[in-house]
Amino acid sequence: MSERAISVRLDDESEQALEALMRQGRTRSQAIREALVAAAERGRGPSLREEAERLAADLDDRAEAQAVAELMESLRAAR
């Protein structure tokens, strides 16, 4: 795919985010390309709701979470 120039208007929040990425050593173009790719990848994964439903149905995960909660509570009570 050939590279194409685009024009975009940034709001204050976007400008600050771009500046933060550029302070990490990226060029303006690199920062924008990486942000676009990251946003697209997040869109391909399961939604937060789907992930929560999957974890809620995972009995092993729920048992481990309960064990951790009980451990944390026993440590708090020991103080």
Task: Describe the overall structure.
The chain is an all-alpha fold. It folds into 2 domains: 12-44, no CATH class; 48-77. 73% of the residues lie in helices and 0% in strands. It has 4 helices and no strands. The protein has helices spanning 12-23, 28-44, 48-57, 59-77. The radius of gyration is 21 Å and the shape is elongated. The protein starts with 11 loop residues before the first helix and ends with a helix. The model has no long low-confidence stretch (mean pLDDT 91).
Mean pLDDT: 91
- Report the principal-axis shape: elongated
Radius of gyration: 21 Å
**Uncertain stretches of 5 or more adjacent residues:** none
Helix and strand composition category: mainly alpha
Helix content: over 70%
Straight-line N-to-C gap: 62 Å
Strand content: under 5%
Number of helices: 4
Total of domains: 2
Oligomeric state of this protein: single chain
Largest sheet: none
- Please give the number of β-strands: 0
Secondary-structure element sequence? HHHH
SSE layout:
Layout (H helix, E strand, L loop, with lengths): L11 H12 L4 H17 L3 H10 L1 H19 L2
Put the structure in a nutshell.
This protein has 79 residues and is an all-alpha fold. Helix content is 73%, strand content 0%.
List keywords for this structure.
79 residues; mainly alpha; 2 domains
